[in-house]
């Protein structure tokens, strides 16, 4: 049996990060309320992946403070942080010949002593999460035989097997067809966790997210509910595209229609 983990808030204040002298993030503030599904948007190179890695303490920030609940992330022991925050990155592979179940069981590492074998409880939790993402039938397949989309869903199962309170996802719908993308986001939306997800598809973000944070050139360009953030002006300023924004007749959420750019002859 798995237990339902309650979400915790995430707050990042004045976060800055440079790589080889180049400023990637500058004075970024992000608030992810408890239990919310917050989307992180922005063009390629805007700093989304860098921010998510910084929130998970994968690298040293130049400046800034990050809290999960009332706790400073940089003051938490690594094992304690891994029990509260799970990160699914865009590219996460292994050279070791593991089964899908073995990969998902890596999510139980924060709960095991070194060299301790997987318990019956560990396997039960992992199989439950594989069932949630629709991959139970592939549990004993070799990892490298999976498609990109299947690997993405398995990584989500691994993160959920961690039983975190905060789920951080970097392009979780990458490699997924539209049906599996919708299923995955719906499952994340109803997980009961606090979720921060970098997304490229703006209409999917509008349909599923409670709040949005838009990065542009390493800074926060806008933040708030989708209806306030997704405007034609923002599309022009941040994405350099012309768009019309309507209200979807079934969901009441914003829906964007993009105009193809003029092609020079």
Describe the overall structure:
With 265 residues, the protein is α/β, with parallel strands linked by helices. It folds into 2 domains: 5-84 and 164-265, Rossmann fold, CATH 3.40.50.300; 94-163, no CATH class. It has helices spanning 48-55, 78-82, 100-105, 120-132, 148-161, 178-189, 202-208, 226-229, 232-239, and strands spanning 10-19, 22-32, 37-41, 63-68, 71-72, 85-88, 166-170, 194-198, 211-216, 219-224, 243-247, 254-258. The strands form 3 sheets. Strands 6-7-8-3-9-10 form a 6-stranded mixed sheet, sandwiched between helices. A 4-stranded antiparallel sheet has the order 2-1-4-5, with helices on one face. The longest helix is centred in the middle third of the chain and has 14 residues, at 148-161.
Strand and helix layout:
Blueprint: E1 10-19, E2 22-32, E3 37-41, H1 48-55, E4 63-68, E5 71-72, H2 78-82, E6 85-88, H3 100-105, H4 120-132, H5 148-161, E7 166-170, H6 178-189, E8 194-198, H7 202-208, E9 211-216, E10 219-224, H8 226-229, H9 232-239, E11 243-247, E12 254-258
Parallel strand pairs: 3-8, 3-9, 6-7, 7-8
Antiparallel strand pairs: 1-2, 1-4, 4-5, 9-10, 11-12
Helix pairs in contact: 4-5
